[in-house]
Write a structure and sequence with these properties.
Helices cover about 0% and strands about 35% of the residues. The strands form three sheets. A six-stranded antiparallel beta barrel has the order 10-11-12-13-14-15. The two termini are about 30 Å apart.
Length: about 260
């Protein structure tokens, strides 16, 4: 299978669209509400952050990321998107588009690294980008969510490997919204370049079509995100590895969960 980024626990999970906030420990969390779905719009707690208030700055340290966000920066908002329930039913406002092709292998031993609830798995290879899939075993399909800021899933023919699910691990964010408005999606394996400014760094997120979130190779438990203060920060540079690395604040961190 692919590289799995396993993180430390989620400090806070904010479920929007009429749902309530909840605080979790270092382990996985269950659904925080009985509502069927949650939007990915930025919660009010992040309203103080805007592209116009970007605090990006060049990274000069060769050994570590900046230790803190600018004074007075709003805390990063954590949202949980819940597009599918355990019965394989889509939440209101979400849709699924069937994809043709041979069945992909979905091994229920591989829990999704971006999910706060058990039962969401990885499917297929890197090219499929099945980082967050809901198995619908009775119909031999999987519903895979590929855009943490969208509302569309792919319906894929699946062949399920019969294994007991592993113990669910704490998640890393599926998607990040940065202070410059850029959206980033978690890496799902593959061969990446190295940043020229910091050759020891590895890529954790793809941002748009040309940028990436970079960080020390031993930061896989946090997905390369500096979580030393309530306002998380990341180091961003060209996905080609060329040019300077710049610190950005994380306005919103999106995870996925099981709908109630």
């Amino acid at each position: 299978m692919r590289i799995l980024w396993v993180a430390v626990g989620i400090a806070t999970a904010v479920v929007v669209a009429g749902c309530t906030s909840s605080t979790a420990g270092s382990g996985p969390t269950g659904p925080t509400t009985s509502a069927a779905s949650s939007s990915v719009s930025t919660p009010a707690t992040a309203s103080a952050s805007s592209p116009g208030a970007s605090s990006s700055a060049p990274v000069t340290s060769a050994t570590s990321q900046p230790s803190s966000a600018p004074a007075g920066a709003a805390a990063t908002a954590k949202v949980v998107v819940r597009p599918v329930n355990r019965a394989g039913q889509l939440s209101p406002g979400f849709s699924a588009v069937p994809e043709s092709g041979d069945p992909v292998e979905c091994d229920r031993h591989y829990a999704s690294p971006v999910a706060v609830d058990a039962g969401i798995i990885e499917c297929g290879d890197t090219a499929l980008y099945g980082v967050a899939c809901w198995p619908v075993v009775r119909y031999a399909t999987a519903l895979c969510y590929r855009d943490p800021f969208g509302r569309q899933l792919a319906q894929i023919a699946a062949q399920f490997v019969t294994r007991l699910p592993v113990t669910h691990q704490p998640a890393v964010p599926f998607g990040l919204e940065l202070d410059n408005g850029e959206h980033c999606k978690v890496r799902d394996g593959g061969a990446w370049s190295k940043p020229e400014q910091q050759p020891s760094y590895v890529g954790y997120y793809m941002c748009g079509s040309q940028d990436a979130v970079w960080g020390p190779g031993n930061d896989y438990k946090t997905g390369g995100i500096n979580q030393s203060s309530p306002q998380w920060t990341v180091i961003v540079g060209a996905s080609s590895g060329e040019g300077a690395l710049v610190r950005h604040r994380v306005v919103t961190a999106a995870f996925v969960g099981m709908a109630g």
